[in-house]
Automatic annotation (TrEMBL):
InterPro entries: Phytyl_CoA_dOase-like. This is Ectoine hydroxylase-related dioxygenase (Phytanoyl-CoA dioxygenase family). GO terms for molecular function: 2-oxoglutarate-dependent dioxygenase activity; iron ion binding. It comes from Dactylosporangium matsuzakiense.
Amino acid sequence: MSATTTAGPTAGTDWVPMTSEQREQFDTDGYLVLKGVLSPDEVRHYASVLDTAHATHPRAADGSLHLLSAVTSCPELAGLIDHPATFPLVWSILGWNVHIYHSHLDVHPTIPAPKPDFWHWHQDGGRQNRELETDPRPRLSVKLAYWLSDVSEEGRGNLTLLPGSHKTNWLPGPPKRDVPWPAPPGAVQVKVDAGDVVFFDRRIWHARSFNYSEITRRCVFLGYTYRWIAIRDEIARLPQQPWWNDLSPVQQQLLGGVGVGDGDHHWGHYPESTPLYVALRDKGLLDPSYPPLIP
């Protein structure tokens, strides 16, 4: 795959499912670190895409950018959504009836002065965490975080998480989010290099740490879930974009462009016209744990 193209590598790439060791670690810790996923050229390309977005979109008062709908906002990022080194982990966990429901790109320059600790620990999913009654909550979605800057040391805006917390519904915290409060015991700042990827269960308790380094923090987050869960990203105008037809069928599925307006399709009633099902079938990679509703 060329780092400068929007079309992804799906058609000609050999996918390798998640290993049993990866699955065991993911189930135990709630996350995996994938080393060296992106080449130096890819890192430079995608970092430049984020720098352009940072220069052209409204920024927060501290100069940071948190831009939703990653591929809609920056089509050049489309090659990340089914990257051969990461996407197999998604369908190994969730199966073939999936799409990207929530994505964002983040650029965080240096914070010049220390800030007080405050409670921004959370599980992904928003109201899912208030309205689902099970304990532990269901997984429902997973996330890929592509790191485009060096956060191999703490204090660079590292993703901070509590290993193994994905099966815990609540953490003891402050009465309000703006009350200074320390991180929960056992929390770690994940230290990774540019080009590494963190794959994590949406339920793991996590937060962004502050960037006190001289390195600008750059990262792309892609959240995947079942197609019967509504997409939060802006997708309404995607099929009208000039680059849409350059995407592979699997990429179009992931961005919500397959079975539009057909609830039964999103429920998985038509696997033979669901591109990821077809791709996995043709490669002999269908997991019997995720069969069609009607064999």
